[in-house]
Amino acid sequence: MEAAIILVFVFGYLAITMEHSIKIDKLIPALVMMAICWALIALGLDEFTQWFDSANHSLMENFGGLPLNDVLDESGHVVTSGKMSLMENTLLHHLGKTCEILVFLLGAMTIVEIIDYFDGFSTIKDFIKTKKKSKILWIFAILAFILSAIIDNLTATIVLISILQKIVKDRSVRIWYAGLIIIAANAGGAWSPIGDVTTTMLWIGKKVSTGHLVGYLLLPSFLCMAVPTFIASFLPAFRGDLDVEEVVEKPKSKFSGKMLYLGLGAIVFVPIFKMVTHLPPYVGMMLSLAVVAIFAEIYSNAKFSMTDHDSEESEAAAHHSPVHHSLSKIELPSILFFLGILMAVAALESLGILFNFAGSLQDSMPMLGTEIHPGGHEGVSDLVVLLLGVGSAVIDNVPLVAASLGMFHEPMDNELWHFIAYSAGTGGSMLIIGSAAGVVAMGMEKIDFFWYLKKIAWLALIGFLVGAVAFMFTRTLF
Questions:
Q1: pLDDT number for residue 449
Q2: What is the pLDDT of residue 56?
């Protein structure tokens, strides 16, 4: 039965990676994979000899000797928990941990959509005061690096490419900027707990803390962005001046700037809330969403109170809630994909497959650059983590990090988790299909896979390796 579950996972995984070839949205194989894996576990539960207790992070070696159902005494109390009961509790545990991530992402996505409703991101255009191509490159790279750390790398890429399309009319020049924006956005998302889905997973999973994540990864991530940008600024594509579009668009609302700073501030507040209250991050995100929603409703009412209410259009707009509008714009396919892939990986973890695979991987890999950790055991090979980063360029980094959570069991803020956050977050830049930022840029600008491989991939590889070396140096300071 284990072999069948692994095969289902492998075929589902292949369907996800070949999304563009088979023309099937990746959320579909993710959900099918999740449901079938857990169904096979339930049907073959009596055949399994071991079970991974996720709550205690340990293998139950006596699982094979347990009865299928609970054993009750004469008064109806459980004497021995059965396999079915343990499976249901494990499934509920994983669902709870997955929902923490999904609710957090829903809150963050809604805040970003509220900002966009008020055209808040148009304020960013004010930063561009030059026509020199290399300077514009640095402006967009730095904006991508900073914005992705606050509103996540996917959203930052969408926002900046949308602005780029209004400024740079020559597509052959614009795709060069888009390629460097992908590298910068992925680098910026790696050092922030809210900058990338994978770092959010590690943060919510209590593998990294905000302070240590920033301390470990700020310098490596910055170099991962800065070195490729510096090299690119000398390429022919970024020489000379740019014909910048001079048309100034009027914002939809006078509250655009206020909503931008309020929304970004609310998202940044979430890690602070967690540090103060020790509550899960999704609680702080819901509080931030509520505050932003209150001001959105107030600003919306103020905005339409100054319009002509005699017109039918103004009357219809006045009764349209910005919060409801923003919720309707949420990327629910992405949420369902995360649900499917995380719960499918949880199925492999529950059977102890990932735990055993991690042991085999460690035995077969050389221990490069490892240190003796407190407790006397050796850490995970740097080569393993670097390969994880390279793998994230080919395979979606979300399941890779989800698998690492089940494979490795180092304590919170161990250097391993921070290196995984860096590698999985920035390694995807090496192929345009290797990250959400790359995929969305590919769609927005119709960037050819092989053009990116030829023109941008080598820059991303240099940045990835420079940042990795910087991390190996930085971790000696902690």
A1: 77
A2: 62
Which two tokens mark 110? 């809604």
Positive or negative: CA dihedral 359, 361, 363, 368: negative
The strand pairing partners of 470, in sequence order, are: none
Q: Which residues pair with 59 in a beta bridge?
A: 52
Query: Among residues 399, 423, 404, 407, which one has the least CA distance to residue 357?
Result: 407
* Tokens 């894996």, residue located: 37
Q: How far is CA 43 from CA 64, 84, 431, in A?
A: 15, 10, 39
Alpha-carbon gap, residue 30 to 34, rounded angstroms: 6
Half-sphere exposure of 328 (CA within 13 A, CB side): 7
Which token pair is 218? Answer: 């700020």
What are the backbone dihedrals phi and psi of residue 355, each rounded to the nearest 5 degrees, phi first?
Answer: -60, -45
Cα distance between the two ends of the chain: 44
Cα separation of 434 and 419, whole Å? 18
Confirm if 334 and 101 have CB atoms less than 8 A apart.
no
Q: Of all residues in the chain, what percent carry a pLDDT higher than 90?
A: 16
Please check the confidence at residue 308 and state whether its pLDDT lies above 80: no
In 3-state terms, the chain is what percent helix, strand and coil (to 5)?
70, 5, 25
Q: Which of 368, 425, 420 has the alpha carbon at shortest distance from 396?
A: 425
Please give the structure tokens belonging to residue 430: 């090496």
CA 164/CA 184 separation, integer angstroms: 15
**DSSP letter string, 58-76:** EEETTGGGS-SS-EE-TTS
The set of residues, in sequence order, having a beta carbon less than 8 Å from that of 197 and lying 6+ positions away, is: 101, 105, 152, 338, 397, 398, 436
For the beta carbon of residue 318, count every other beta carbon within 10 angstroms.
14
Nearest-angstrom CA–CA distance, 38 and 345: 10
pTM of the complete model: 0.70
Site of tokens 């860096």: 422
For 6, the token pair is 């692994």
pLDDT in tens, 185-241: 999 988 988 888 788 888 888 888 888 888 889 999 999 999 999 999 999 888 887
* Pairing mode, strands 71-72 and 78-80: antiparallel
List, as one string, the DSSP characters of 371-395: -BPTTS-B---HHHHHHHHHHTTTS
Lowest model confidence (mean pLDDT) among 168-172, 305-309, 416-420: 305-309
- Please give the torsion angle defined by the CA atoms of residues 187, 190, 194 and 195, in that order, rounded to the nearest 10 degrees: 20
Residue-wise pLDDT tens digits, 63-103: 777 777 777 766 767 656 677 888 888 888 889 888 887 88
What token pair was written down for 30?
Answer: 């993710």
CA distance 66 to 70: 9
Nearest to 321 by CA among 329, 310, 333, 311: 329
Q: Is the pLDDT of residue 378 over 60?
A: no
CA distance 67 to 83: 6
Distance CA 12, CA 365 (A): 27
